[in-house]
Amino acid sequence: MTTAAGAHPDLEGWTHIYAGKVRDLYVPQDASAGAPGDVVLVVASDRISAYDYVLPSTIPDKGKILTALSLWWFEQLADIVPNHVVSLDVPEQVTGRAIICRQLRMYPIECVARGYITGSAMTEYKAASFVCGVALPPGLVESQKLPEPIFTPAAKAAVGEHDENITFEQTAERVGDGVAGRLRELTLAVYARAARIAAERGLLLADTKLEFGASALPGEADIVLGDEVLTPDSSRFWGAADYRPGRAQLRQAVRARLAGLGRGRLGPARRRPATPAAGRRHPAHPGPLRRGVRAAHRHRLRRLTGHGPATGRAAGRGLATRP
Fold first, then answer.
1. 95 class by beta-carbon count within 10 Å (0-12 exposed, 13-18 middle, 19+ buried)
2. What is the share, in percent, of the chain residues with pLDDT greater than 90?
3. Distance of CA 273 to the CA centre of its chain
4. Which of 12-16, 63-67, 215-219, 298-302 is least confident?
5. Which of 69, 98, 182, 320 has the fewest CB atoms within 10 Å, counting from its CB?
């Protein structure tokens, strides 16, 4: 799992059907591996995704750390919204980095909640004092806490493309008024819970991206939390002790290096996945940087959950296993 960035393992009883930026999806080959058409095996790789690119380097144990974090957060949020976790009885080859999940019809919306203004939101605010159609007060500075958290959706894009920020009204056009309202409500409720938990551990949750889907099974909830949740890949966490509004907070090391090389979101290789077929590639990252990112991820996992990736399976045992 930590060799070539595009590699995925062959798993007995499962057929590989999709390679995302950092996750691989498998479906059962027969009923012995699960109910065909009902479940999907989600495997978190060690691949790196930044600025909507898949990079040639990997971060050792990244998939295990993100899986352990997601499982822990699913537990913390279970009373707010159901999640897609079915079982942790996965092939030994991917233990600790894989989850058997309920197949969902995913809504084509990246549901983003922001409690602080930074990143693309700051860029949009400087241009028009609005973020995704939400009017904000004048005079906000970089990384400042917002008067209240806001819902800033984005339309999902293909791998190698950048998601497009949209308004709530545009979200409703895509999924309907009722679903759009529930997506906003659930996203802000998840953010509020997660921000409180993070604050208790000396962290600020600046923003987070969530993905929801609908189950086709009778009796299932109409909106289910899927994908990953509140990981370093999907969220900005800042140390409360180091927080200073008016300046950019500590960025992800990988993104910082890409920006320094002119390969950020506005760089010359924009909208090109970093694969051999794509021509120009982002550079590989040196060992010290990758080890540093791994250490930072492990530290975040322990600070939030109190355990490391080795106990990720045990951490998920409290999750309800669905028949």
1. middle
2. 58
3. 18
4. 215-219
5. 320
Please give the Cα distance from 61 to 50 (Å, whole number). 17
Q: What is the DSSP letter of 83?
A: B
Q: How far is CA 119 from CA 8, 61, 115, 247, in A?
A: 32, 27, 12, 12
Least reliable range by pLDDT among 35-44, 184-193, 298-307: 35-44
Cβ proximity of 294 and 59 under 8 Å: yes
Contact predicate 237/205, CB 8 Å = yes
Q: Are 34 and 100 a contacting pair, CB within 8 Å?
A: yes
Neighbour-count burial of 126, counting CB atoms closer than 10 A to its CB (0-12 exposed, 13-18 middle, 19+ buried) = exposed
pTM of the model: 0.83
Q: Is 24 within 8 Å of 82 (Cβ atoms)? A: no
Q: Which two tokens stand for residue 158?
A: 């293909």
Mean pLDDT (whole number) for 151-177 = 88
Q: How far apart are CA 221 and CA 219, in angstroms?
A: 7
Sequence-distant (≥ 6) Cβ neighbours of residue 131 within 8 angstroms: 114, 117, 121, 124, 125, 150, 152, 165
CA atoms within 13 A on the CB side of 178: 2
Q: How confident is the model at residue 59 (pLDDT cuts 50, 70, 90)?
A: confident
- Of 242, 243, 233, the closest CA to residue 297 belongs to 233
Instruction: Count the Cβ atoms, other than its own, within 10 Å of residue 18.
Output: 12
Q: Assess contact for 281 and 56: CB atoms under 8 A.
A: yes
